[in-house]
Amino acid sequence: MSARRSNSLAARIGLPLSVAALLVFTLFPVYWMVSTALDPKALTRGSDLLPSGISFEHFDFVFDRGNFGQYLLNSAIVGIVTILAAALLSLFAAIAVARFKFKFRTSVLIMILVVQMVPLEALVIPLFIQMRDYEMLNSLLGLSIVYIALSLPFAIWTLRGFVAAVPKEVEEAAYIDGASWFRMFRSVLLPLVGPGLVATSIFAFITAWNEFVFAYTFMKGNDKYTAAVGIFQFFGENTTSWGPVMASSTLVTVPVMLFFVIVHRRLGSGLAAGAVKG
Amino acid sequence: MLVGDGSKAGSSGSSSLRSRPSDDGDAARRRKRRTTLTRPWLLLAPSLIVLAGLLLWPLIQVGKLSLQDYKVKFGGGEATFTGFDHYKDLLTGELLWKTVLPNTVFFAFACVGLTVALGTAVALLLNRLGPTWKLICSVSILAAWAMPAVTGTYVWIWLFSPEDGMFSQLADSMGLIDAETTNWFTERLPFYAIATINVVHHGFPFVAITVLAGLLTIPKELYEAGEIDGANAWQRFWQITVPTIKPVFLVVTILSTIWDFKVFTQVFLMPGGAGENPDVYNLGVYSYIEAFAKNDYGAGAAAAVLLTLLLLAITVIYIRTLFRQGEEDL
């Protein structure tokens, strides 16, 4: 049908042109980041589309001189703690709102929607003071706790859909076979919700990995930065060494992109739908 | 309260079970009732505690803080109650009305308009492509979506950076600017134009993919009927597509508005964005600078409360939209 409509000359030229424009706009920043990271003469490449050569010296630099391995490790630790806690808590909460009818259920759901709109700048001031009072600044655990809270609402909202998609009959069959609720949860519900749980967890990981405001405010020790904040140090007073900045940016970006493609396939339209609804 | 009642009723039920076997069915029913009352709250409790402690409680604290002067001291802070002084300073100051609010509002509207327009255009494009190109374009859109705000911002700064940046060099060689003397980051308008490109690049994939999902729900017959009536593509879009999936457009517009009002990282990380240049403050950055750079936590909190109230108003509209649609089966 679309072929019949696009017979006119304008459409035949317009379509490929639009595709080309879209690909350039979406991918060019990624290309420019990676090619600058690989270019030994990054700073003077100007508007040359191709890098002047391929070398890994900027990557060596950020690991050897910039301590970036430590920052990546910090980010990974924070991300994994966030995943584990957020997955467990959100799974329980999602089962509650998807499987049970109870008083104030709608209120709970609305609250979950509303707290996602809260700007981080409003939270960072009181949480900074609180964390300082508890001496949790500069602690990876303190940062993880904040990220658990930040990733919970979206995780609950998305998982709720996955739990609701498991037919109630499957659960009832387990009860008829004499299973207790926890046995049913472990042997029936958990395996069926598993793919959704993996996808939601990866999303929680990305949230923690990308976050800037809290990591920047809380972590001030030289070896405590997360990767997203650690890039900052390659900015000089007057000049910026763009090679190392782009090399460390590449290291931060590539895992997220890989994860994102995996998650998106798993979640299908759920990612968009989950985000639409929350 | 509910939980307490339920467990009390349940425990008396189970003791009667032991003494009188004939009440078996009754006790089981009571136990089941107790379970259905308490289990959802037990399951919800950990999440609610975390959300209350780390999202709701800080919100109350920031409200309290905005009414105080807060001094950092060793082993805790010292607070003096000042009433609405911070709000008075904020709302009567020229900075808010001449710089901070216009920056926040115009930037948000520019970003929302461009994000929704571009996202819709891309969705329409994807809808007309064959499977191979659709996949290629979808992956490229995902790449833009996945780009973290921090690293995305650095790439755009690098592209536009004075002297060495690619676009500066390009514009110089075309004779538009002198790369040696032009700095796009010092003036408000070019600064926010670059921030807009950055935010739109990061934000349009969500709109594109959501609108595409909406487009797939529109029956083809509608378009065929439109074609028979002689409507051209432009008219078909405005008179068939837009009215049919109006709820989708409402949702992506409101969500984009919420997100674009609270843009922080993309502005803060730009040259001059972290407080060096007050001309480019937006509400979030202003709040952060007041609190953490000037150590005036009360004033920062007041600005943060203002931002929160703005977002809350938009959120209320959003939730009412969801409910009016009736799509949301809460």
TrEMBL record, chain A:
Its annotated compartments are: Cell membrane
Record flagged with keyword Zinc-finger = no
Q: Which Gene3D superfamilies match?
A: MetI-like (1.10.3720.10)
Annotated membrane topology is: Multi-pass membrane protein
What name has this protein been given in UniProt? Putative ABC transporter permease protein ORF1
Q: Name one GO cellular component term.
A: plasma membrane
Q: Show which residues constitute the signal peptide.
A: none
Q: Where is the ABC transmembrane type-1 domain?
A: 72-263
* Major localisation: membrane
Q: Write one Pfam family the protein is assigned to.
A: BPD_transp_1
GO biological process, alphabetically ordered: transmembrane transport
Automatic annotation (TrEMBL), chain B:
Recorded GO CC terms:
plasma membrane
Q: Which InterPro entries match?
A: MetI-like, MetI-like_sf, UgpAE/MalFG_permease
What the entry lists under CDD domains is as follows:
TM_PBP2 (cd06261)
Which Gene3D superfamilies does this entry report, sorted A to Z?
Answer: MetI-like (1.10.3720.10)
Instruction: Give every ABC transmembrane type-1 domain span.
Output: 101-318
How the protein sits in the membrane? Multi-pass membrane protein
Would you say which domain of life the source belongs to?
Answer: Bacteria
Composition-biased stretches, type Low complexity, lie in 1-19
Cellular location(s): Cell membrane
TM segments? 41-60, 105-126, 135-159, 191-216, 237-259, 297-319
Q: What is this protein called?
A: Putative Inner membrane ABC transporter permease protein YcjO
Give the organism, scientific name.
Answer: Streptomyces aurantiacus JA 4570
- Organism placement in taxonomy: Bacteria, Bacillati, Actinomycetota, Actinomycetes, Kitasatosporales
